[in-house]
Amino acid sequence: MALDFPSASQATELVEQLDGLVSFFKVGIELQLAEGMSPVQNLISKGKKVFLDLKYFDVPETVERAVRRAATLGVTFLTIHGNGRNIEAAVKGRGEADLKLLSVTVLTSLDASDIQDLGFPCDVEALVLHRAKRALEAGCDGVIASGEEARQIRATLGDKLLIVTPGIRPVGSPNQDQKRAVTPREAVLAGADYLVVGRPITRDPDPRKAAQGILSEMEEAFTDPARA
Ligand code: C5P
Predict the structure, then answer these.
(1) Less Cβ around it within 10 Å: N or C end of the chain?
(2) pTM (2 d.p.)
(3) What pLDDT, on the 0 to 100 scale, is given for residue 198?
C-alpha cells in the first residue's frame, strides 16, 4: 500500500483504516520530505513492514553509502535505479542486512514514446528485460516492473528475482498517470510477487472496501493454475 500523502496524520489514518487487512506500506518521496523518517520508524514500531521507495540513483559510492544507512532502519524493501555498477554498489552497501533491494526497470508511467523521449531507441519490453537481467547479474533481489512485462521476466529469468508491480488498476479505476497499468488479477497471473497500490485505494471514498476488493481478486489469482 503506497502512503503517498503530504502528512503523517493522513498516512496514519489510512494505516488505521486498513488495520488487519494490509501490513506492508510504501513510503515515498512526498511523505519522506514532509515528515523525515518518523513515519518509517512509527510503522516499524507498530509491527508493519516498510517499503522505502526513494529510487536511489546517483554515482555508485553515493548509492552505496545511502543504502548502508537505509539498511540500519529495519525497512524490508528499498528501491534503487541505474546500471549494473549502481546495483553492485547498492548490494555492497546493504551488506548482511535483512533488506531486499529492488531495481526499477522502467517506470509504469512510461510508454514507448516516453522512453524515446529519454533517448532509448528500443521498445519498453526489451529495456525492461535487459534491466531485469542486469539487476540479477549484479546481485539484486528483485525488480519493479509493470504487469505487462512480469510474465516475460518470469519466462526468461525464472524465480530468481522478486517481481514487484505498481500501476495496478482494478476494472473501472482511472489510470491517472500510469500508462502500463493492469488489473490486480492480471498482475498476479503474470507472475508478480507483490503489488503496489496507491490511488485506487487512497482516492476511493471507502478505502477499506477498495482494499478488500483488490485483496480478494489477488487471492483468487494466486491460486489460479494459470499463474505464471
Ligand atoms: O497511485 P498508484 O497506485 O499509481 O501508485 C503507484 C505507486 O508506485 C506510487 O507511489 C509510485 O511512486 C510507485 N511506483 C510506480 N512505478 C514504478 C515504481 C514505483 O508507480 N516503477
Answers:
(1) C
(2) 0.96
(3) 98
